[in-house]
Every structure is written in structure tokens, then in C-alpha cells.
Write a structure and sequence with these properties.
By secondary structure, this protein is an alpha/beta fold. It has two domains: 253 residues, DNA Cyclobutane Dipyrimidine Photolyase, subunit A, domain 3 (Orthogonal Bundle), CATH 1.10.579; 102 residues, Rossmann fold, CATH 3.40.50. It is built from 20 helices and five strands. Strands 3-2-1-4-5 form a five-stranded parallel beta sheet, with helices on one face. Strand 2, helix 15 and strand 3 form a beta-alpha-beta unit. The N and C termini lie far apart (50 Å). It binds flavin-adenine dinucleotide. The site of flavin-adenine dinucleotide (FAD) has 28 residues, from helix 4, helix 6, helix 10 and helix 12. The site of flavin-adenine dinucleotide has 28 residues, from helix 4, helix 6, helix 10 and helix 12.
Length: 399
Amino acid sequence: MRRSVNFTETMQSDFWTNSSAFPSTREAALDRLVEFEKTASRYGRDRNHVVPGHQNVSRLSPAIRHRLLTETEVAKHILHRYAFSTVEKFLQEVYWRRYWKSWLALRPQVWTDYLRDLDALEVCEAAQKVMAGEGEVEIMNDFAHELVETGYLHNHARMWFAGYWIHAMGLPWQLGADFFYRHLLDADPASNTLSWRWVAGLQTRGKTYLARRSNIEKFLHPDLLQGREGGLELLANHQGLNPSAFIRPEIKEPAYKHLAVDPSLVSGFWLHSDDLSVDPKCHEVFLSEDLPASEVKAQWLREALDDVESRLTGHCVERAPITGLLAWAEKKKLAQIIAYRPEIGVLNDQLIEIEKALEKANIRLVLLSRGEDDEFQSLATAGFFGFWKKIESQIRALK
Ligand SMILES: Cc1cc2nc3c(=O)[nH]c(=O)nc-3n(C[C@H](O)[C@H](O)[C@H](O)COP(=O)(O)OP(=O)(O)OC[C@H]3O[C@@H](n4cnc5c(N)ncnc54)[C@H](O)[C@@H]3O)c2cc1C
């Protein structure tokens, strides 16, 4: 008789604890991209299947989320080998991140409302059980363990887990989103929050996502499901909770201060975990290191920062928590700090205080953005496929 393999077992080999599973250095991410590229033409067909080892997907999301690789680099690389039509599905997925980030940047109140709601919620016993992997549906318990132990879940498993949490368990989506955010290596304020809202039926009018038993049986590899079917009957015919309060959030044009770099000033560069692409324009670099509570996530980020630091040869680097930025700038007698603008999310929330403190010390903070990010941002006014239509020719031209 075939024995079932659970996620924890498949994840326990050294592979899952070294950086080739979820590359944490630029070199490892490029190696993984080269490896993935060999199968990229099958991605559209295979991507929805959850298989042991997750070989059918790129597993590059932590690297792309923190910009060890940019979306443009990934797209260029893949288009070098394949016709656009062969890899369009993969390219669309890569640009979903820019779409979600752009969508949220135009509606930042969705992020602040989420944080406010989260703050007001209590973690009930049922939620605690599901997060601890002690709920009634065995396969969902496996997903909870996989998430906490590896920092990753396949996209379909994320959808099933979120659907189960919201619609079968009746738990608040904000608590589930927070659980994911605390553990995912690729935790991204936009992709995570908006995907949870989408499953809850708050993102697209009339659309909720239900984790159906039949769908799980179709897309989850039998080796992962066998012997773990307990509780699946709860997902056979359940109904979606109907979000009574669907509101289309208003678009607010971002009111960024667009300061230009003043080349006459003594300047330093602030590199942070929202954008670890190494191209600092200054000799002095502050690499902010604020490690998350999850040890798995903290380890990944530490490795990524080690990698960045090792590539900053010829620069004078100080690595410390963000609270040390002002003291560093004063010590180096800087009049200007340059950085890539943090996206809507945790780091960006600290900007007001940071800017105030720097202003008091007479230090300018100049926030840069990449041209294509700015351009794409203005296009996320409606759904993804409208957005894709508008950017498609630009992506094709990357070939
Ligand atoms: C409830 C829920 C929460 C999620 N939370 C996050 C999150 O916090 N951070 C995150 O990066 N993704 C999130 N996703 C999206 C998606 O699940 C992951 O990006 C994907 O599983 C990453 O694995 P991969 O790199 O192997 O993806 P692949 O299938 O290989 O896709 C290639 C790349 O495209 C991007 N991508 C793929 N799917 C999506 C998507 N749906 N949205 C945005 N970008 C995508 C990623 O950068 C990924 O590396 C969430 C999805 C759901 C349903």
C-alpha cells in the first residue's frame, strides 16, 4: 500500500532549509531562473497543480518581492528563450505583483483600513487552532505547518487555505492575512492583503473563492492527499459568506513629494528590504535590517542582506535597524539621503516619522522610483486584464 507523504516530511530534507529552495541571494535566484526556464513553456499547463517539491513553479517570489531580481529582469530572461505567446501566462503572473502594488498605491486607505481592523480583532480559539495546524480539516493543518516551517505555500494552497479560513470556518480574513504575512518569505502587503480580500469577495464584486473538495482532489498530488482526507467533507458543499458591504475603494492620486537629487550635497544611500537591487548612487550606504519574528523568515532575510552587503564592494556600508538611520546620517555628516521609495506597507508606514526626524536635523530624504513602476502604477485603475492589455506591448518589447 502506498504511504502518504505529508508536507512536513517532504520539506525536512536539507533542500528546504538551504537557499536553493527559495533563493535568498541574487546568484542563487539567477541559477533558479535558469533552471526554471527549461520548463517555463509547460508552466501554463502545470502551474495549478500542488506537487511534492513545487518543481512546477519558479519559487522565485521571495527574491522578486525583495527585488534581488526585478520583474523586468525575469521577463527579459524568459523572453530571450521563448516566444511571448509560449510564456505569456508566466509573464502575467510575474506582473500580477506590479498590478497589486499599483492598485494599492492608488488606494492606500485599503491598507490602513486593514491595519485598523486587524488591531481591533481578537484572535479567537478557532483561529488559534487552525494556525497551529490543529483544525478539523487535516490537509489544511498540513498547509499551516508547511507555511510556518518553510515560509512558503503554493498559490493554489494559499487560495484553498484562505477560502477554508473565511468561508468554511467563518473567521475574519484580516487575521488570516496577518498569519500569512507573519510567515511567508514573500510576504507582500499588496499581494497578500488584496489576495485575501479577493477570496473574501471584497476585491471583485460578486466573486468569492471557495475551497472545494473536488478542486483539492483534482489539483493536489495524491501522495500529499492520501491519508490526509479527514474533514474534507466540510468542504464538499459549503456556501460562501456573502460580503454585504462590497465597496469599490476610491482612487486617490498619490501625493508624493518629488524632491530631485541635489548633486552638490554630501549624500548617502539607504537600501532597504523593499528594494535590494544593488545600485547605490553613493559611497556611503545604510543597509536597514529589521528582522521579522518568524525565525524562518528572519534567516532568509539575513542571508539576502548578507548577499547584498557582500556585493557592495567599494562602498562604506553600515547595517543596522531603521531606527539607526538618523544617527548614521549625522555621524557621516550627510545633508541628503537617497533611497528607492518603499511601497505601501510596513516600511512606508514609518516614513512620516523618519522624514520628520531627518527634516529636524536638516537632512533631505530623496525617494526615487523606477520609470516603469511609476508608469504602471497609473494604469491600475480597474481589473488585472485591462492593466495587462495596457502594458503587454511593453513586455513584448523586452525580447
Ligand atoms: C491568499 C493569498 C495570499 C498571497 N500572498 C502573497 C504574498 O504575500 N506575497 C507574494 O509574493 N504573493 C502572494 N500571493 C500570490 C502567489 O501565491 C505567490 O506569488 C506565488 O505562489 C509565489 O510562488 P512562485 O514564486 O513559485 O510563483 P510562480 O507561479 O512561479 O509565479 C512567478 C512569479 O509571479 C509572481 N506571482 C505569481 N502569482 C502571483 C499572484 N497571484 N500575485 C502576485 N504575484 C504573483 C511572483 O513574483 C512569482 O514569483 C498570495 C496568493 C494568495 C491566494
